[in-house]
Amino acid sequence: KQQGGYSERSVETIEGEVGRYLAHRLDRPMSELTRLELVALHDRLTADGKPYLANRVVRHVSAIWRSLDKVHELTGSNPARAVTPNPYSPNRTRIAAADLPDWYAKVQTLSPVRRDLQLFCLFTGMRDHAATRVRWEHVDEDAGTLVVPRPKGGEAKAFTLPLAPGVLELLRKRRAENVIEFSAFGGDSGWMFPGLTRSRPFRVQPVAEAKEYRGPRGKRTRFIPGLHTLRRTFLSVATEIGISELDRHVLAKHAFGGQSVNESY
């Protein structure tokens, strides 16, 4: 489902983050939001160690302004234009090739479904939201391909991704194990990486949370990096082994523009 060109997931993100960080402004006209207010908010979030969240909230405001301006012709100019976004670090988290054995050893301690989800993301570079929602009908084993119908939760067009032989073998085993593991719940309901709802009656659904934490309650820490880190590793390795810039864009389903999105990965 899309609203005004934005996917349902994106709308939820915008409503949640704007509602949290601009709660005191929600009952006031959009046109009264000043550049100084938005710059101050961006600076505060950045100072709190959340530079990318700061950028994202400003982008939310800009998108809302543009949408309202089309209908109501707001006075003044978009306040987001006064904000200088934080640069993306060239050293954003990724797993170096030398660290993969340690990562792999940790992955082997996860549940079978979550273990295979981690490996699948490492070898495909897929976005976490799309990867957790892959269904068996999306896979063509004969062609060795996977159709990704909603690469960014509905914002981008579907595309076909080639799968390496090792990934296809992983998926064959995953399908067979799903039959056994979820037999009491009527099967995996077509989900490649299924999970169960938290409350009874238990129902099968795609894995709801892919992050992995360990430790006692109140002191839990990240056990392994998130799935998006694997996407950065995928593109970094692709660069090192000579995959062309064009092919990397296609494999990652990144938009083409003046600045290469791949460079920040």
Task: Provide a brief overview of the structure.
By secondary structure, the chain is mainly alpha-helical. The chain has helices at 8-21, 35-47, 51-72, 100-107, 112-124, 128-132, 165-181, 227-240, 245-252, 261-264, and strands at 2-3, 6-7, 139-140, 145-148, 159-162, 194-196, 204-206, 212-214, 221-224.
Q: How do the strands of the widest beta sheet line up side by side? A: 3-4-5
Give me the secondary-structure category: mainly alpha
Amount of beta strand: 5-15%
Oligomer: single chain
**Mean pLDDT level:** 87
The number of helical segments is: 10
Biggest sheet record = 3 strands, antiparallel
What does this structure look like?
With 265 residues, the protein is mainly alpha-helical. 45% of the residues lie in helices and 10% in strands. The strands form 4 sheets. Strands 3-4-5 form a 3-stranded antiparallel sheet, with no helix packed on it. Strands 1-2 form a two-stranded antiparallel ribbon. It has a two-stranded antiparallel ribbon with strand order 6-7. A hairpin with a 6-residue loop joins strand 8 and strand 9. It is globular, with a radius of gyration of 21 Å. It starts with a strand and ends with a helix. The model has no long low-confidence stretch (mean pLDDT 87).
